[in-house]
Amino acid sequence: MRAPRGYWQAKLLALSQICVGIAALLGVAGMATRRPILMLAFMAAQGLLVLGVVLFAVVAATAQRAMIRERYAAGDVIVREGDARGDVYVISSGTVEQVVPGADGRETVDKRLSIGEHFGETALLGPGVFHHTFRAATPVVVMRMTPDAFVTLCASLPGFKEQFKDVLAQRLQQADRRP
Question: What's the CA angle centered on 14, arms 36 and 151, to 5 degrees?
Fold first, then answer.
């Protein structure tokens, strides 16, 4: 089985945490016990501390490049129903409307999303299209995450993964109810 794309960053982050953790553990043990051998081991582990920081910097730099800040004016369409999906959008400022075609053919606002809310996470399920149009209700700044960046965040932040898993389950239930 092949690892998901972006998984190398999660492995690098875990290795970074292990390096820093070992160095910290040796430092605390050496200072608490005042045993010369543990203090010497801590001194030798300083390289692990530097390595952990460098690995973390590499992950942070690549993850940051994968998140793209976009600005939209009020009324601008961010994604249109039928567009190929692929990225996840997190609202940094402003309000976004999810619009659907009304019975009379005009668009109606289905719901409003604000700071911290997101859309497009169903894009991670595979190729397909957006099922809704999302438009800026006010001037909006969104962070657009590539699937690679999303996988990396999920692999390295368990709370982030759990929240999106719950949201994804809700969105799939809503999609099943749609005619």
Answer: 170
Phi, then psi, of 99 in degrees rounded to 5: -115, 150
Distance CA 99, CA 80 (A): 9
DSSP letter assigned to residue 130 = -
The parent domain of residue 39 ranges over 7-65
Same domain, 141 and 75: yes
111-159 pLDDT tens trace: 899 998 888 876 666 666 777 889 999 999 998 887 777 776 666 666 7
In angstroms, the CA 153 to CA 146 distance is: 11
Residue 108 lies inside a defined structural domain of this protein: yes
Place of tokens 């368990």: 158
C-alpha span between 31 and 46 (Å, rounded) = 15
Q: Is the pTM of this model over 0.70?
A: no
The answer to whether the CB of 104 falls within 8 A of the CB of 136 is no
Length of the chain, in residues: 179
